Amino acid sequence: MRDEKILFLEHLRSVYDHCHDHLLEQGRKRDQGITFYVVLLAFILTNKDKVEQVFGGESTFIFINGGLVIIGWIVLCFLADLRSWHTQYLGSIYTLNWIFANESKFDSVDDIKNQMKTIMTATINTQNVPSFSKHPIRWCRYWMSGLWKSTDDKVYTGMIVLTATPLMGILNRIEYTKNYVCQWFILYLLVSIIIFEYYAKKKVAEGEKYNTWILSFDYNSKLK
Known about the structure:
Keywords: Membrane, Transmembrane, Transmembrane helix. The chain is mainly alpha-helical. The protein has helices at about 1-45, 50-55, 60-100, 110-120, 135-145, 150-175, 180-210.
């Protein structure tokens, strides 16, 4: 029994190393996604005159700008998904750290597995979303609260602003909107921040409460 426990703990240390590597990989993927969009956006904006000449004028440029907005949102969703994986790997590392620090308390492998499952399935995110109809100020504050909390949050906010850049190019080319670009810009930012924060908070909450496969050793009981 003791040998089995020692072997299992060695396996967990290997899992810990892999979690650490994947955690770093999430950061690299995030940076690559942001770099891709920034380079693409910079290329289009700095060559807009040539783009119009080569691809057929103003209407094509509006279409390209619309595509840039869509691509920007694809990147934002990609970043939110990465944050969810980041949460899962980080949660696994926290769990394994606790197991290693208290390994003397466990008599068997089953005890370790049960404790890991208890930790991983515990509800972490218990914050309730305020009602807009009852508390509009609290509702807005809730969705705006994640803008500057961490480095990642600042990066996401910057990405939202970047997606507004091609939108401004579209608004400036349309007769009915070019006189209200600032108003549309502010409205877009507010709506975009709320939508992204909702999606990101949802993905992170799923990552926090998910009994991740990383530390699931019975593969959802399929091998029994």
